User: What shape does this take?
Amino acid sequence: MSWSLDLVPLPPCALLGGPPLSGLLWTVLLLFLWYCYRVGSDPPCHSGLHKTSSSFSRSSSRSPVDPGHSAPKTSAAIGMEAVEEEDGPESYLAPVLSHAPFPNEVAADSRKLYRALQEYAKRYSWAGMGRIHKGLRNQAKITERPSIQKPHLFYLPDVPSIPFFPRDAHRHDIEVLEASYPIILAEFQAVYQRGIDTKFGWTYQGPKGQAVFPLYNAGACVASNCRACPCTYRTLLSLRTFINSNSLGSAGFWLLGPGTTLGGSYGPTNTRLRCQLGLQTPAQCELVVGGEPQCWSEGHCLLVDDSFLHTVSHNGGAEDGPRVIFSVDLWHPNVAAAERQALDYIFAPEQ
Assistant: This one.
């Protein structure tokens, strides 16, 4: 069966006054179909690999290879590391491979955490894990350096930090805690009047005069203490950024007796902020973080990055009674959701 172009109604070319431009139109149509075929047949390219190749081209232009020697082959893992180091503060956006090199001189704890990161990535993805990977590699350097901010367990790079954060960093959670101040205070007084004893759920930490009534201890719920403070427990669960799934997070009542001073120390990580609601705050109490002094106020919250060097003191007399705060660990606002999920896995509470 033969086809005729006369079957296709084509208007005449009014401008040229000539016959229909059927040949030209068919040519354009064939070119368009050929273009669609080529585009559809090209294999998709991974943006991360393009980024790596462009990184290599930039590095090769800066460091020419000796023509007398062949260029060494670079593994994919080393390539990804090169991207991370060159890109600076935004390196955490670069992909990380499961076989990326890890320093041999790191501590056993960091190596254990790195193995946990590898397990997490095998289950889920390496996407967004660049900062965590870099932090685990460099933890030994952070611990050894002289600095006013030196978390001893895990330091997440490129996280902006100051000793005291403004309320806007966690406005919702702060407003929830401050609105619940009367009931939180009432439940503390109820457990305080039973006596400060380990059989009633209290634990002693540090020097004499400091005691804690934990609702969450290192990411694990203390069920008996939560039953003793049901409204406070429900308030905790209503917070959006409460760290309740890994060992970096805790919550509870912290009591400091008169005449007690806690020497300078560093918190374990910069991925959290410690929100402290004042319950009983005598005038002679002071908190110094990163060289900046602050005082608690009853019914109001302080948002503290305790990875900075900090000291706590209660210089009042016995008549002033203890200083009491309700402390809750919240995620640092600059820790991404994917990083929070990975840290929950890496620092899972011990069973």
Remarks:
- The first strand starts at residue 164 and ends at 165.
- Residues 22-41 form the longest helix (20 residues).
